[in-house]
From TrEMBL:
Transmembrane segments: none annotated. Keywords: ATP-binding, Cytoplasm, Glutamine amidotransferase, Hydrolase, Ligase, Nucleotide-binding, Purine biosynthesis. GO terms for molecular function: ATP binding; glutaminase activity; phosphoribosylformylglycinamidine synthase activity. SMART domains: GATase_5 (SM01211). SUPFAM superfamilies: Class I glutamine amidotransferase-like. This is Phosphoribosylformylglycinamidine synthase subunit PurQ. It comes from the Bacteria.
């Protein structure tokens, strides 16, 4: 499976993401720059974390309006898998590719720590390496991770199994409604998540609980 990583000014997790994808798939992802309007032919596009355009206006708001996002939207409509992590999740929400919004953490503080995630839906292209209900470790690092959706949207995403990850065991670091840490679109090919699985993929990271997300999306065996 071929993958690509979006690179935008201010993103800072792109190298970690490229390293994770390369290690897990054995092939380096292609990189995509903000001005590109024609994307390479890949199976998975990843929008990594960071502070695109300095988080001005709202996290992800400027990035979502760059030409490249029209191309990402078109690819998602054609069925290409799209994964957004942290700022990538914020960008996907601002671009309208996912439901809901991410607000300031309820503590009003930047949180950088390890939390626990429950795999709420293991029947997805991004989580089939896990079992439903499995608890995995994962780091978070953000100030705007407080997921919110109105009652109608919440009912729909809960009912459709679009909530893919929840913060487990009282580890919700940001006040997200229903402990939501990751959501996908109705079609199931676009996933956004606040935690950083690319930073927990090998022994040198202190564990590999995040590996299954990439192994699932890239269709390789999780080792
Ligand atoms: N690590 C990240 O991607 C941070 C996302 C965003 N800039 C925030 O702080 O909420």
């Amino acid at each position: 499976m071929k993958s690509a990583v979006l690179q935008l000014p201010g993103l800072n997790r792109d190298r970690d993401m490229i390293a994770a994808l390369t290690k897990i798939s054995g092939t380096a992802p292609v990189t995509i720059w903000q001005t590109e309007t024609t994307l390479p032919d890949v199976d998975l596009i990843v929008i990594p974390g960071g502070f695109s355009y300095g988080d001005y206006l709202r996290c992800g708001a400027i990035a979502a309006r760059m030409p490249v996002m029209q191309a990402v939207k078109a690819a998602a409509e054609r069925g290409t898998k799209v994964l957004g992590v942290c700022n990538g999740f914020q960008i996907l929400l601002e671009a309208g590719l996912l439901p809901g919004a991410l607000m300031r953490n309820s503590s009003l503080k930047f949180v950088c720590k390890e939390i626990k995630l429950e795999v709420a839906n293991a029947d997805t292209d991004f989580t089939r390496a896990y079992a439903k209900g499995q608890i995995i470790r994962c780091p978070v690092a953000h100030h705007d991770g407080n997921y919110f959706a109105d009652a109608e949207t919440l009912k729909a995403i809960e009912g459709n199994g679009q909530v893919v990850f929840r913060y487990a065991e009282g580890t919700n670091p940001n006040g997200s409604i229903n402990d939501i840490a990751g959501v996908m679109n109705e079609k199931g090919n676009v996933l956004g998540m606040m935690p950083h699985p690319e930073n927990l993929i090998e022994a040198a990271h202190g564990g590999n609980d995040g590996r299954g997300i990439f192994a699932s999306a890239l269709d390789v065996i999780a080792a």
